[in-house]
Amino acid sequence: VAFPVSDFAANTKGRVSRRWFVSVVATGAAALAFPLPARAQLGVISPEALDAFLEIILPTHPTAPPASALNLGAAVLMDAQDKPLLLRLLIDGVAFLDTVGPAPFARLPSATQSQLVAWMAASDAGEMPAQFYHAMRSAALKFYYTNPAATASFDLKTAPQPQGYPPPWDMTVQTAQDQTGLGMAGPNR
Amino acid sequence: MSAAYDFVIIGSGAGGAAAAWALTARGAAVLLLEAGPVFNPARDYPHSNADWEAREFPSPQGSRAQIIYGDLGKLNARDSDLASFDAVTPRAPMAAMRSAQMGGYVHVLGVGGDTLHEVGEAHRLHPRSFALARDYGAGFDWPISYDDLEPFYQQIEQFIGVAGPAQSAQRPRSAPLPLPPHPLSPAAARLVEAGPRLGLPFEANTRAALSQPFDTRPTCNYCGQCSKGCPTGAKGSADVTFIRHALATGKLTLIANAPVVRIEQGAGGVIVAVEYVQDGQLYRQETPVLIVAAGAVQTPRLLLASGLANGSGQVGRNFMETLTWSSTALLNGLQGSHMGLPADAVSWAHNAPDGVAGAVGGCRYTSAVQEAGFTGPFAYAQRLIAGYGAAFHRKMQRAFGSAITVGATGAVVADARSNISLSRDQVDANGLPLPVIASVLTDNSLNLLRHMRANCRALLAACGANAPIAEGGSWDVFRSKHVSGTARMGADSATSVTDQWGRSHDHPNLYIADASLFPSNGGGESPSLTVSALALRQAEHIA
Asked: Are A183 and B179 a contacting pair at CB < 8 A?
């Protein structure tokens, strides 16, 4: 079902305060919003919406697994438990995802989900939609790239130790060192 | 406690540890008090875990001091071309004030001090930097010359195992470095090739990281994580060099997690004791000689709080941060730039005090891919490759390993507005007033910063890189590991805190052995080697 991008903006109007971060921090709303333990707060977040959002951010690819394969949504939620501002952004952002379109985000057609994410990414950086996009992207990428399944296609070890990256690294480097006389060449005397 | 030691040293970083080694090696009994904990490399630097890239240098309890930031300078819109940016983070509206981001004053309290999280560059100051005021009309002069310090530079280099070129055109050595230079990383090799075309020749950097086995420590295996802690002992941090050897003498008593809260003076200004806290208990330790080596923030804090050494009124004044800039681009054809030793190549072409037109002090350039953190895909995704979806995956596959970063580090000339003072209303858990850092960039700094940026960009272009996609520096962000100048040495007791040996003009048995002593901070050199050389020179003088 086509859903014009302009409708996202129209639906957002009046419901998402400008300068979300500033307003939340200035009023202390992040702290005041948590009369219940963080775990209970997580219960108001639709995991389906978050999972679907992250699947748009990190879809399956020939060289990399999708977000769902690494259970990134659950990792992001767990990580937010002791981060009041991030948790508040999660609650507001996921609620926004589920109400800004004609149906809950997870039930929107893939093309519409992509349209919405694109609109959020390009929206005013001071507004909640963009801040949600950037914060979730960043949080998801941290868990994504600390999973060996996501880094297997790079010229990279699972971790830099204990093997390190002993030289030589490539022939271009060796040629340059030979030409300049720099680089390891025996005793320094 | 009664005086059972010949010396008490406060702080176990590059200065305090070197002093402890030098004194114990000469048979003296030394008590070394360290405010922070002992780090265990195998436990604390887990670079073998899959989540290595998300980890910073560890911060166990007691390893970070509380700092208050005062005036860091206003941001003027006319200088907003110097604003930091990257390809991913949305640009925020310009702030009114420079802020202490990414840690601000990044200081480690722990056995080994800042050497634990430094990259480990081992630099001698430029010989002409010692007479900045006399020859260039800016800042202050050292009461000693390069030649006075050279033998001690040489001894420290030999002791910790510095790798680098056998000789230096700008910094004459009385002996070659003990270890050959490291092989150049892929990005450094490109700068070595391109630099001469701009009059910026690069050479292998002098590094306190082993290019061959040395003193029972292993060769560096180039994991690229020096600033997050070296788990192998290849980096010559103070804990695996000076302190290890000092402990082996049997003459060193090391007490960690023991912040000093007061220095006590007796008749005639003689220092008689220190008070420190351990496990919530206050201890008093008498000492015939006290060496304060807590760094350029904590040393003046302690002196000011104790009302000591300030007959000149200069304690805490002349705070010098480090001026930094870095430019990062992607370079087609470059592969594996995440591999190799951080800061492995350096250009000293503009390092002399008059090396930069329009600014006094000088600067230097390094290959800085690893220092900038581009050693894994998370950093690329956070700062270099924007977007999401399949396009993001494709860009990551193409880009990873092709980042090239040029870093520049420049002088800061002491300015009256930059200083360390004590908070009037905030104290730490032990009741000691918190230090307040004020650090303001001058026109000289801004001119130098623009020069550094221009040449970082020019070097990238000469390598064939696209336009920078991540840049940043000191204009809008105060972030400094290397700070100095707050208890400077000098020939005149009216205008300096210590004499040429680091001895207080006001107290005959009080010495300072850290970067507080620096009257000027060179042209972007890393200070640790100079701190250690000064401490060794001091120790030989008083032992």
From this structure: no
Partners of A166 on chain B (C-beta within 8 Å) are: 221-222
B423 in helix, strand or coil? strand
Substitution target from B339, B346, B382, B394 for chain A, most A beta carbons within 10 A: B339
**Whether the predicted pLDDT of A35 surpasses 70:** no
Query: CA-based angle B287:B291:B295, to the nearest 5?
Result: 140
B207 touches chain A (CB under 8 A): no
Omega before residue B151 within 30° of 0, cis: no
Asked if A144 and A81 touch (Cβ cutoff 8 Å), the reply is: no
Cα separation, B507 vs B303, in Å, equals 12
Residues 157-176 of chain B with CB under 8 A from chain A are 163-166, 176
pLDDT in tens, B500-526: 999 999 999 999 999 999 999 999 999
Q: Are A142 and B54 within 8 A, CB to CB?
A: yes
Instruction: Give the integer Cα–Cα distance in Å for B180 and B438.
Output: 41
Q: What is the ipTM of this complex?
A: 0.91
Q: What is the pLDDT of residues B329-363, one digit of tens each?
A: 999 999 999 999 999 999 999 999 999 999 999 99
Task: Count CB atoms within 10 A of the CB of residue A140.
Answer: 24
Beta strand residue intervals within B287-372, DSSP E = 290-292, 323-330, 345-347, 363-367
Of A134, A153, A161, the CB nearest to B231: A161
- Closest chain A residue by Cα to residue B90: A125
For residue A57, list chain B residues with Cβ-Cβ distance below 8 A: 388-389, 392
